[in-house]
């Protein structure tokens, strides 16, 4: 009986019913884990600092000590009302929605193995907004109805894009091009719906269409936060399968992953995250595109780290909302700021890709 050949340096072979070859040394994997934890911790610390700043600044400034006292019961009166009832829902929405968009973008980019395949670029955000807009204009527009409309719209947009791009597969640039086309058509339809709506509804929907957190009240944020947390838990539970899917279906199947089932669960979870955010804040652009790639480059690992991406997305959206509210001459929807930030990132990414070809 021939003795097994010794494993090469840097290659670890695991046994079991399905033998896997894991490239790279254990030291490298540990290093990536440490960097991911460090990036996530730094981003969360920055989110905490910006959150305190967001609760303190505004037309009615609140000292930092009183902000902290509002949570411990030492602060009462108007300051407590301003912090907990007026500003806290918006801060919570910015943090959770930024994390949700980043995770959704990370799922799409990982599954398609395409850094441009984020929900806002390929039209899913516009599809969710179309469903929400139809529910608002023609069916009354309660939050559960808007959320249901956003979910249906996002799913229909995803199915349409997948159907039209099926010849090129999920990994080709055809998916992005088809998604951009579908997104443009949905934007045109949304404009037509707004022109048919009454003035008050059209103004409200137009603000949503730009992406805004000004409507983030406790009554809307609490149920949306519940949906987001459940969907984030669903996606996190499939994070190992997502990492294998990034290597391709054949490799994923050899490690015990069911590519079709796990991909469907992950994509449905991502569409649900986008829909829940869109139902409250509208289609906030470019957070889903930029945050996962920023986290990936910061971690310098082989895949998209969902934890670091979520923390980065929360930081990007909260920081953008602070800029939109307090650092510009005129208060603008947060989506205007994220478009500028994401557009600059997209331009840099395209130029970088062009230089490497």
Could you explain the architecture of this structure?
- Helices cover 73% and strands 2% of the residues.
- It is mainly alpha-helical and 357 residues long.
- It starts with 10 loop residues before the first strand and ends with a helix.
- Mean pLDDT is 83; it is low at 1-25.
Strand order within the widest beta sheet: 1-2
Distance between the termini: 50 Å
- Provide the structure class: mainly alpha
Biggest sheet: strands, sense, closure? 2 strands, antiparallel
Q: Work out the oligomeric state of the chains in this entry.
A: single chain
Coarse shape: globular
Q: Helical stretch count?
A: 14
Q: Which sequence of SSEs, written as H and E, runs from N to C?
A: EEHHHHHHHHHHHHHH
| Overall radius of gyration | 22 Å
Number of strands: 2
Query: Which parts are unreliable, with pLDDT below 50 for 5 consecutive residues or more?
Result: 1-25
């Amino acid at each position: 009986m021939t003795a097994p050949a010794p494993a090469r340096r840097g290659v670890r072979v695991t046994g079991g019913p399905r033998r896997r070859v894991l490239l790279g040394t254990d030291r490298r994997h540990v290093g990536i884990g440490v960097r991911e934890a460090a990036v996530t911790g730094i981003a969360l610390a920055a989110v905490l600092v910006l959150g305190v700043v967001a609760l303190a600044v505004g037309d009615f400034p609140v000292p930092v000590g009183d902000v902290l006292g509002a949570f411990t019961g030492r602060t009462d009166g108007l300051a407590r009302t301003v912090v907990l009832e007026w500003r806290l829902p918006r801060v919570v929405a910015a943090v959770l929605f930024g994390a949700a968009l980043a995770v959704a973008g990370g799922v799409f980019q990982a599954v398609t193995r395409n850094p441009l395949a984020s929900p806002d670029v390929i039209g899913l955000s516009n599809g969710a907004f179309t469903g929400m807009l139809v529910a608002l204009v023609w069916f009354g527009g309660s939050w559960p109805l808007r959320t249901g409309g956003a979910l249906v719209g996002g799913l229909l947009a995803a199915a349409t894009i997948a159907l039209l791009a099926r010849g090129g597969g999920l990994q080709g640039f055809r998916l992005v091009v088809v998604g951009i086309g579908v997104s443009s058509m949905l934007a045109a339809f949304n404009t037509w719906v707004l022109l048919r709506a009454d003035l008050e509804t059209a103004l409200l929907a137009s603000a949503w269409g730009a992406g805004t957190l000004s409507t983030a009240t406790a009554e809307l944020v609490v149920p949306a936060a519940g949906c987001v947390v459940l969907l984030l838990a669903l996606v996190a539970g499939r994070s190992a399968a997502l990492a294998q899917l990034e290597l391709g279906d054949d490799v994923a199947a050899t490690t015990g992953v069911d590519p079709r089932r796990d991909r469907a669960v992950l994509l449905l979870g991502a569409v649900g995250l986008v829909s829940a955010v869109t139902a409250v804040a509208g289609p906030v652009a470019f957070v889903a595109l930029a945050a996962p790639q920023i986290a990936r480059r910061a971690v310098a690992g082989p895949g998209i780290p969902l934890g670091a991406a979520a923390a980065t997305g929360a930081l990007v959206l909260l920081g953008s909302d602070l800029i939109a509210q307090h650092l510009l001459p005129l208060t603008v929807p947060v989506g205007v700021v994220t478009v500028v930030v994401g557009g600059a990132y997209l331009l840099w990414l395209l130029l970088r890709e062009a230089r490497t070809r």
